[in-house]
Amino acid sequence: MPSIQACLFDLDGVIVDTAQFHYIAWREMAQDLGFDLTREENERLKGISRMESLEIVLSIGGVTLSDEEKLRRATAKNARYLELCMQMTPDDALPGVRHFLDELKRNGIPSGLGSASKNAKVILERIDMLHYFDTIVDGNRITKGKPDPQVFLMGAADLNVSPVHCAVFEDAVAGIESAKAAGMLAVGVGEASVLTEADMVIAGFENFGLPQLENI
Ligand code: BG6
Ligand code: MG
């Protein structure tokens, strides 16, 4: 495996656990429309843009809405999501992730964020982690969502590192696909039984560092 010269991180589920807030906000919307959304169904929304997620949720409930109403619902869901996110503090960063980002900095390896979220900067500011990232590629910049490789290819280009020398950290199946399509090393954060296409799967960043990354 070529040596790693840059690391690209997904946000939700890798840096911080905001998936629970997305779930609460989508579930409340579903219930308001007369159906429930299970945790299992919520898995399908990980890594997927807001409007695409809305389409999936509506299809689960068999609900059809006008474009105007879809926009209104997505805006309301986002307002509720952000309200829930405001409960977070810097302590909400996932265990070990700050330590790993510090290790990368000490070793001169740049870090980038590659997220579908349009709220990425607000969330990173909230947990006081914006300064860790040399570039931010988020839902406001990309035109093609995961599993398309665009988000990570843009990150690599920003950092001026060839994709083959980049490692991606992702908790979503769509994100692992995106990393592999970009020709990068894909490190799954979560369960190996779910992230089957990843080059390696870690449960989290505790007990993980550069030596482990270089051994993949
Ligand atoms: C991803 C999440 O990071 O961002 C998805 O995994 C979410 O669940 C997507 O839909 C878009 O987020 P936002 O914050 O722009 O609604
Ligand atoms: Mg994620």
From TrEMBL:
<keyword id="KW-0413">Isomerase</keyword>
<dbReference type="InterPro" id="IPR006439">
    <property type="entry name" value="HAD-SF_hydro_IA"/>
</dbReference>
<dbReference type="Pfam" id="PF00702">
    <property type="entry name" value="Hydrolase"/>
</dbReference>
<dbReference type="InterPro" id="IPR010972">
    <property type="entry name" value="Beta-PGM"/>
</dbReference>
<dbReference type="InterPro" id="IPR010976">
    <property type="entry name" value="B-phosphoglucomutase_hydrolase"/>
</dbReference>
<comment type="similarity">
    <text>Belongs to the HAD-like hydrolase superfamily. CbbY/CbbZ/Gph/YieH family.</text>
</comment>
<dbReference type="InterPro" id="IPR023214">
    <property type="entry name" value="HAD_sf"/>
</dbReference>
<protein>
    <submittedName>
        <fullName>Beta-phosphoglucomutase</fullName>
        <ecNumber>5.4.2.6</ecNumber>
    </submittedName>
</protein>
<dbReference type="InterPro" id="IPR036412">
    <property type="entry name" value="HAD-like_sf"/>
</dbReference>
<dbReference type="GO" id="GO:0008801">
    <property type="term" value="F:beta-phosphoglucomutase activity"/>
</dbReference>
<dbReference type="InterPro" id="IPR023198">
    <property type="entry name" value="PGP-like_dom2"/>
</dbReference>
